[in-house]
C-alpha cells in the first residue's frame, strides 16, 4: 500500500482547523503531518527531512498571513503544492494568492467532496480551479484562444508600450490610483488604459488582465 500524502494545515481558527484535521484524516490516501495557526508557526514546524506534499493555506491570519506564507514556501520549498482556503472571493485575494504561488483556491464553506477533489487535483495535476476561479480565470483564458487564432497572431501585438507598462503594474497589489502616480499620469488616463485593455483583449476584470499577463509571459508567478 502506498504511503498517504502528507498534509499541513495552516489556519488560525481553532475549531475550523480541528474540523479540517478530522476531515483530511478521513480521506483515503491523506494524513495530517502538522497543523499551524499562522505562517510563522508553520515555518517553525516544517522539517526539511519530512516535508508535506500539500499545504491547505488560510488567506487571512495574524502575524504571517496566507500571502506571505505562500510566498515564503514557494521561495524555499517550491515543490510543495498549496491550496488556498478562504472566506473571501474578492478579485484582490484571488490575484494575490495566485501570484504568491498557490495553484488552487477554494472557499471554506465548500462541500467536503469538493475539498477532496481539489486536493486530488493538486496532487495529480499540480493545479485546481474551483467553479469560483473557473468563472473568473478559466473562462478568460478560453477567450485568449480566440485571440491566439485571429489574424493578428500574437495577442500582444495589439498593445502599445504604455499599455504593456500599465498591464505589468496591474498585476501588482497597487491600486489604480497608485499606478497613476507610478506612471506619472492622471487617474482618468489610467482608467482609459484599463478600458482600452478590456476592449482590445475582450476582458472584463482585473483578474482577467492578470491571467492574460501570466499566460503570455508578461509577468512570472
From TrEMBL:
Keywords from the named record: DNA-binding, Phosphoprotein, Transcription, Transcription regulation
PROSITE patterns: HTH_LUXR_2, RESPONSE_REGULATORY
Residue stretches in coiled coil: none
Chain ranges of the HTH luxR-type domain: 152-217
A Pfam family: GerE
Positions bearing 4-aspartylphosphate: 58
Organism for this UniProt entry: Flavihumibacter stibioxidans
Protein's recorded name: DNA-binding response regulator
Signal peptide per UniProt: none
InterPro entries assigned: CheY-like_superfamily, NreC/VraR/RcsB-like_REC, Sig_transdc_resp-reg_C-effctor, Sig_transdc_resp-reg_receiver, Tscrpt_reg_LuxR_C, WalR-like
Molecular function terms from GO: DNA binding
Domain of life: Bacteria
Domain Response regulatory as annotated: residue spans: 6-123
Amino acid at each position: 500500500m502506498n504511503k498517504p500524502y502528507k498534509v499541513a494545515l495552516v489556519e488560525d481558527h481553532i475549531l475550523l482547523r480541528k474540523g479540517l484535521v478530522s476531515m483530511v484524516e478521513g480521506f483515503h490516501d491523506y494524513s495530517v503531518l502538522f497543523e499551524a495557526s499562522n505562517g510563522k508557526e508553520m515555518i517553525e514546524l516544517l522539517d526539511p527531512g519530512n516535508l508535506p506534499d500539500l499545504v491547505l493555506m488560510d488567506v487571512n491570519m495574524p502575524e504571517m498571513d496566507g500571502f506571505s506564507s505562500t510566498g515564503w514556501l514557494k521561495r524555499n520549498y517550491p515543490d510543495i503544492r498549496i491550496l488556498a482556503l478562504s472566506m473571501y472571493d474578492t478579485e484582490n485575494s484571488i490575484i494575490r494568492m495566485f501570484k504568491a504561488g498557490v495553484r488552487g483556491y477554494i472557499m471554506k464553506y465548500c462541500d467536503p467532496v469538493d475539498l477532496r477533489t481539489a486536493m486530488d487535483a493538486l496532487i495529480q495535476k499540480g493545479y485546481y480551479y474551483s467553479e469560483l476561479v473557473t468563472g473568473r480565470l478559466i473562462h478568460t483564458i478560453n477567450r485568449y484562444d480566440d485571440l491566439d487564432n485571429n489574424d493578428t497572431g500574437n495577442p500582444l501585438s495589439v498593445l502599445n508600450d504604455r499599455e504593456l507598462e500599465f498591464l505589468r503594474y496591474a498585476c501588482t497589489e497597487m491600486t489604480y490610483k497608485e499606478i497613476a502616480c507610478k506612471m506619472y499620469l492622471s487617474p482618468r488616463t489610467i482608467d482609459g488604459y484599463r478600458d482600452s485593455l478590456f476592449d482590445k483583449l475582450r476582458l472584463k476584470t482585473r483578474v482577467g488582465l492578470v491571467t492574460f499577463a501570466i499566460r503570455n509571459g508578461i509577468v512570472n508567478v
